[in-house]
Amino acid sequence: MRRFLLVCLIVSATVAMSATATEPLESTLNDTIEQIEVTEARLSSMQQNRTVSSTFTGLRRFDDEHLDAAKDLAPLVPNLHIPDYGSRMTSSIYVRGLGARMDNPVVGMYIDGIGIANKNAFDIDFIDIRRADFYRGPQGTLFGRNTIGGMLSLRSLSAFDYQGTRASVGYANHNDADLRIAHYALAGDRVAIAATVNYHHTDGFFRNVYDNSLTDRADNAGARLKTEWSDRENSVSYSNMLSYNFVKQNGFPYHQVGMPVDHNDECSYLRHSLIEGFSFSMPIGQYTLQGTTSYQMLYDRMLMDQDYTRLSYFTLMQQQQEHFVSQELVFTTPTLTSTSGKTAWHSLSGIALSYKYNAMHAPVTFLSDGIDSLILKNANQGIVKAGFPEALKIELEEEQFVIDSRFRTHNLNVSAFHTSYLQWQRWQLEVGLRIDVEHARFNYVSDALIHYNIDYSGISRRPVNTSLNGLIPLTYAELIPRLAVSYNRPTWNIYASIAEGYKAGGFNNQLFSDILQNRMMNDMMSDMGVHFATTQDYKVSEVVTYMPERCLTFEVGSHFNHAIESNHTIKGGLTAYELEVFNQQLTTFPEHGTGRMMTNAGRSRSLGAEAALDYTFRHLRVSTTYGFTHATFVNYNNGKQDFAGNFVPYAPQHTASLGLTYTFSFDHDIVHNLALNVNSNAVGPIYWDEANSLKQNFYALLNANINLRMKYVTLQLWGKNLTNTRYDVFHFVSMSRHFLQSGKPIQFGGKILLNF
Q1: 283-302 tens-digit pLDDT
Q2: How far apart are CA 542 and CA 269, in angstroms?
Q3: How many domains does the structure of the chain reveal?
Q4: Looking at residue 650, what DSSP letter applies?
Q5: Is the pTM of this model over 0.85?
Q6: Exposed site from 236, 294, 382, 530, fewest CB < 10 Å?
């Protein structure tokens, strides 16, 4: 780490000495919406028509408030909650009472117009993101599946907007070090090239008392190359984005209530992700054709001590390699106006095709304590019930054994969509429909071999070889409609909308160790000549398959943006909504199992409201948000308990934020301004289970930032959770034990940012 710091200082000194006289970045970019040009037709349509509850964040705010990842954006967006737990594989997002801890997300993420195929790749460091747009509510009509809660669009800085070099070096407590370098250049007047690299290290915040190791130590790095070509005279443009991200970290610092982290087997996460995306826009007569072609590769490996204790129960390795290709085409019509000029119409239509192949290897290793308590205990109880003497005991020859599972999943998605916009004077009607067809094929092979003997019976070294293999197809089609009407004035509007969306179904691959474990015990009993008429057998296709989650949203809202003189502005929005959720997907832990599973939990309803206000008066800026969600089960019975009327777990009922920024401006060639920012974000209560017996109470975190902005250099000091508030970000029950992950304690650091 000392070498890293020395390199950072050398880079900083070299960059500072090589600075030449150029316009500072702050004169080129700011947070205003009007100066941001969006070329993607669907995003442009959403911004212009303003019938969606939305939040916009610009580059200046990313720099000034130390916003480095998607989870840092959550406090700025009403009803959005992105807890920081587990590892960077765990990219759980909750919004308006929707969300799940595994498999498909409820929010889509786009980077430079390219949709990220796997949520495992969502948690990345933001590098020179010029603009982040978060749209709440179902966006499936335009963007397809897995956007029932919203969509996050990230736009990186373009060399058409800024030419020069940006670099930063940061250091914080817990040995947190960060280095970023980006260069932006034009090749002629039509070609723009942007290249960024970054590296981030942290020792983490929690220790494992078993071996005194750092349980959340992490290193991650990334690189991005964006090349753009634009002929503005002929309205033709091309863009290519190539990015790579690497993560290596310890993870999953879960501990029992009232105890420290204390596990004896490795917990870690490794990820390589690659995205290659090509986009174009060109006129065809009076029409416009836009397209995006992408290839994405994800390789990651998770190692987990699944009992989270120093006992030797079982461990999991989940390794996967995924390849994804997609093609989207969007066709936009020109605006057609009636002869009277009072009525206008335009539309956009599109098709999308994608294919995903995932190869996963997920062996579960049963260790001595797990064999004794989960295998032998049940088996010995079974032979006593069958009439064998109690003195006879089954023993396994192996001190540990592996339930080996390999999966191959193929997903093909084909969709077509259309949205029309009809404007009459100040009124606008929006009508859209998407047809989504998905076909998945799930191949599985799972097997285990053990040898057993029975004391005092003469039975010794009897092999039990249990295996499962098969193919499960899953096909479904979804219609995703949207209807919205709005009344628009120059500085405000009101709107109402009805929209539907869905989250894709899938397969519970983590259940195979439980299924095979059950089969192994049955096979052992059968080998001994014991057959139970009441033995429950699994029908694999029914157990491991879960269906799509559907959501119907009713929403009314308003946006306003009003300027009083040149230095006095107020803007924001108000929203009220109702969500009807069908076949809601919930992540649960089997009562005596070794993994997690996704289940369809009947129906839930979410009622809520959102408010956002941004007020600027001269050098003072006040930003505040508030979100309220009342999400309850309408119908959910797991066969043992009826949860109707209970709150949906993991979704907070309240989110709130308040930020104050005061800027001192200086009439000086070198020193430009000093910005002081204090902000607080609050969330809760959060229920941790369907029975609502466990919860995290409402809590608030205090943060602060000081930024001294000079001609080429910005000096920054920042702090998070300055009151060192104690809270839990995750709580679950596994094998009748309660586990949780604590929130991060106080953090503080500094950064040097260079623009030249």
Answers
A1: 998 999 999 999 999 999 99
A2: 30
A3: 1
A4: T
A5: yes
A6: 236
